[in-house]
Amino acid sequence: MKSAVILFPGINRENDAIAALEQATGTKPVVVWHGETELPKTDIIMVPGGFSYGDYLRCGAMAAKSPIMRAVAERAKAGVTILGVCNGFQILTEAGLLPGALMRNASLKFICKNTHLKIENADTRFTNQYKAGDFVDYPVAHHDGNFFADSETLDRLEGEGRVILRYCDANGVVDPATNLNGSQRNIAGIINEAGNVLGMMPHPENAIDPLHGGTDGRNLFKSLVEAAS
Amino acid sequence: MSANDFNTPITPELVKEHGLNEEEYKLVLEIMGREPNINELGIFSVMWSEHCSYKSSKKWLKTLPTKADWVIQGPGENAGVIDIGDGQAAVFKMESHNHPSFIEPYQGAATGVGGIMRDVFTMGARPIANLNALRFGEADHPKTRHLLSGVVEGIGGYGNCMGVPTIGGETNFHASYNGNILVNAMTVGLADADNIFYSAAAGIGNPVVYVGSKTGRDGIHGATMASAEFDDDSEEKRPTVQVGDPFTEKLLLEACLELMATDMIVAIQDMGAAGLTSSSFEMASKGGVGVELWLDKVPMREEGMTPYELMLSESQERMLMVLRPGCEDAAKAIFDKWELDFAVIGILTDTKRMVLKWHGDVAGDLPIDPLAEASPEYDRPWEPTPKQDRIDPESISAKVSHVEALKTLIASPDLASRRWIWEQYDHLVMGNTIVRPGGDAGVVRVQGTNKGIAATTDCTPRYVMADPVEGGKQAVAEAYRNLVATGAKPLAITDNMNFGNPERPRIMGQFVGACQGIGEACIALEFPVVSGNVSLYNETNGVGIMPTPAIGGVGVISDLGHHATIGIKRDDSALIMIGAATGELGQSLYLKTIEGREEGAPPPVDLNAEKRAGTLVRELIELGLVRTCHDIADGGLLVTVAEMCLAGNIGADLHLPEAGSEIAWLFGEDQGRYVIATRDPDKVLNAASSSNVAAVIIGQAGGDAVSIDGGEKVSLSELRNLNEGWMPNFMAEAVQ
Lengths: 229, 736
Known about the structure:
Chain A is of the alpha/beta class and 229 residues long. Chain A has helices spanning 14-25, 68-77, 87-94, 151-159, 218-228; strands at 3-7, 30-33, 44-47, 81-85, 101-103, 111-119, 135-142, 146-148, 163-168, 187-191, 197-200. With 736 residues, chain B is of the alpha+beta class.
């Protein structure tokens, strides 16, 4: 099982991503510099979190124009599994690989804390190790995680089962009180139409070790491996 | 001043504007053998500022213990370095950015964080943890919310972008900081013990290289500003505050570490306070060489910059290096990849002089050693702080019930949860955070090992104010205790000495006393000082801050399988107090908050008892007998237990002693104590007894309330709302 992690200037959770992929696949991922134009052949591509280009202009906007993103888009088209977390989600939306946009948190503040998430669709290559309706506990760490799309797009995402994760409380209740960043319909993660690209704000890669305080994130990576093998 | 105006007449007014007094200027004339030009005067000004020269504090700093077998590098470099075993080293330091943060809280705090991280990665270490010690004015002062909000955003804005977790710190509110907040930032880095980088320049003819951001006009005279008292016009100094660019610093970090993995660097120094001046003089002075700088080659952000501005700018995210000859192209390729400026701006010479060239002309020519080393050193007159009487516990009778007092204390600005602050800091990035903020010390795992580094910052300024010697001891002892409480072996400290105007004997006396106390504690606890920073003149309109020697402590947990956190984990545990209760209510938060009195002698620190208790607690944790531990500090025993209950979401019932003051028992801030939870109390009590450490069962965990002798109680949910509610409510009022 081969995986790749894309590195843009300013990305800072690449080692967290590498650790999670290595744990799940048994092999260290290849790190690909943003200036490259070609990707090695891999089963999984992860766009990790951080502050690509300092989040200047708009989060992910400049990274989306990096040379490597053309190759990433081609792989997306070819059906390769692509996971974008946090800044990675922002980059994928800016690159047009996922719909919607991530705006500043409703609180206008950076938020770093654990949050509960409801697995809305377990029938994807990202969530096959969970059951629909499961609640999981991952941390978030972002300033701009407030998911926005117009209501037509949102309805379509819901209708096609493409909303994968929603912010909820410890009992699975999804309501405005559990919506930590103001996202439309509490959305924390979505997939593309073909189902091979997931963008999500929370960090499953920071919940893979009992010393992290929880291991709920492991199954997400295990799902990727399961689907690709 | 125009670009070539080296001939600006040097008037007494100009000398005064540069912060040099008459005697100092006389020394300048003596060293130069002539009148300096404007560039040279500017250089003397910053090099001899209090901030850069430590002229008032040197005499006393030299008395601090700095050695231990595990110390690789003590004070004098960019940061201290200690051996943490397995060929690895921890590199750390704490530094203040007080004045800039008061004037412009976001950028002041952000660049403070950026500066301290640079100090650490200059030594070859990757920063793996940030902490911060913050002091603001009283909560209802009109500026406090604005300053707190800006400082926290600035710290987060920089640290989060750099991808370094902020794992701990402390925040106090007190009227003495109304006009002069304190922002002390600490960074801990990880390096290979055999690959530490130093600043001593060497190799005549070697190229002097500038990397990082371009130089702009920001921060000129920052070091001088930091060396003077504030007055009502201080806000006009906003242009002297630097502007941070964490993205560039992230690139600089990666580029420097990439270059450090080669053998191309001879010496490296970050450009912090006093920028190019300080870095070039320090490198040359330490290496005993001369430097010729070609200032016109410095990458510039703006047109028309002068040599004077280039030498004094405090633009951020810059480094100065000496490379091995012939490495320029290979080194430049790394900086090109990271899209950073790289310029050869000079050469090492054997003249022991700093010669500044500007398009071929000499813009300045100064001897290096006399300037760097013969800077003034003062033995300022000082007065000891008069001792205060001990508060007799029997003289205090309860005005409210104990539980009411607990509720008031835990919702007070001093003790309310700081979650509002630390949730704005990414404390998880790097995937190695094992103990998050909100406990005694933060703990990060050393990547790829089962070893942990614990770090904390501590100081109780009201104790230092009342008795600088005991307060100095207490700050070190509390840092020691906070590390022990996680199971770490405390190894070394960094000290960030924040005081008022040292020209006042009373203030100087506070400094001298604190140094004495810190020194005594460091020796007794084998906990040496390896780095530090002094910030004086923390006064506004003649009113000084409480003396605040913030101590940053670092320790190592050899096996993370055995570490402790503050939350109670099982409801069938006994609660044991380790350490002796003596009933110290002087300077306690109970006395301040419930009685409205800030007075009395602070709790004395028995350093031998401290060492014995600390060693015992660490051993109990290492043996796996204890997984829950919290030191007893601000607020006393009842507050400590309440915090343990809230963190673990399990209640507790506390026993009162059969005799003596209940208030002193529950709220005294006696030092050298911990509360642990265990299901095997006999083993713990026996171990304590054979270590000659006082230990007594003080209660039992269980239920969903905190109660006293099965009687008066408060539910955890009420307590949580009080504790967690204060700061969000307080800050929400900031919304206009």
